[in-house]
Amino acid sequence: MSIHINANIGDIASTVLMPGDPLRAQFIADHYLTDVRKVSHTRNILFFTGTYNQTRITIGASGMGCPSIGIYSYELYTEFNVNSIIRIGTCGSYTTELRFYDLINVKAAASESTFAKNAWGYEEELQECQGTVFEAINKVATASNTPLRIGNIHSTDVFYSKQPGTPPLAIKHNCSAVEMESFALFANARFLNKNAACLLTVTDIIPTHERLSATEREQALRPMMQLALETACIL
Questions:
Q1: Is 5:47 a contact under the CB 8 Å cutoff?
Q2: CA–CA gap between residue 101 and residue 78 (Å, rounded)
Q3: What are 104-148's pLDDT values in tens digits?
C-alpha cells in the first residue's frame, strides 16, 4: 500500500498530469476539470481527479527533483494502475535561441543523477521518454497549431552552483534547457514498461538572467496545461 499517496484504489485515473508544485495541481483542477475531487493530500502533495472533455484525468504534484518524482511516479504506476504520466513543468533555457513561453516536448533527459543506476541498474546518462505519449503530444500540437519544440533537456540535481555556463553534460547531449525531474520519471517508466512524457515551458533565460514573474508564469503555463489535457483525451 502506498505510504505517500493516501488515495483509494480507483480514485486515480489511468493518465496523470504531474506539475511539480501542489498549488499548480490545484490550479489546473480548479480551472480545467469538472466533477473534481481531491483524492490525496499526504505531506500536502495534492492529487485531484476529475473530468476534462468527458475524459477522466488525475492531476498530482511530483515535488522537486529526481528522488521526489521517483517516489510518486513509481507508486502511481505500481499501486494505482496508472498507465501514462505527463510531467508538465517549467525550465530554464541554456540558449537565447529559446524564448519565454516556448513549449518543449522532451525527447530525452540527460542527468548526472545516480537515480537510474541505483534504482534499476541503468548505466546510461540519457533516459528517453517512454511509450506513445510523446507522439500523441506532437499529434495534438499539430492539429491545434500549437508551436512546439522537440529536443533533449538536462535534468540536474543542482539548482545553485558555483560553476557558470552550460554544464559539459548538457553540451554533450545537446540539451537546450534544464529542469530537475524528467530523468527519474523516464527511468521508472522504462523499467515498468509504462508511458512517460514531459512538456516544459521556458520561464527563465539563463545566459541573460531573465525570468518571468510569478504572475507572468501563471499565464505562461496555460498553453502547456491545455496541450497536456488535450493529449490525455486521446491516450
A1: yes
A2: 34
A3: 999 999 999 999 999 999 999 999 999 999 999 999 999 999 999
CATH superfamily to which 15-232 belongs: Nucleoside phosphorylase domain (3.40.50.1580)
Is residue 1's pLDDT more than 80? no
Answer yes or no: 204 catalytic.
Answer: yes
Among candidate residues 35, 102, 157, 204, the one labeled active-site is 204
pTM (two decimals): 0.97
155-189: buried (b, 16+ CB within 10 Å) or exposed (e) per residue? bbeeeeeeeeebbebbeebebbbbbbbbbbbbbbb
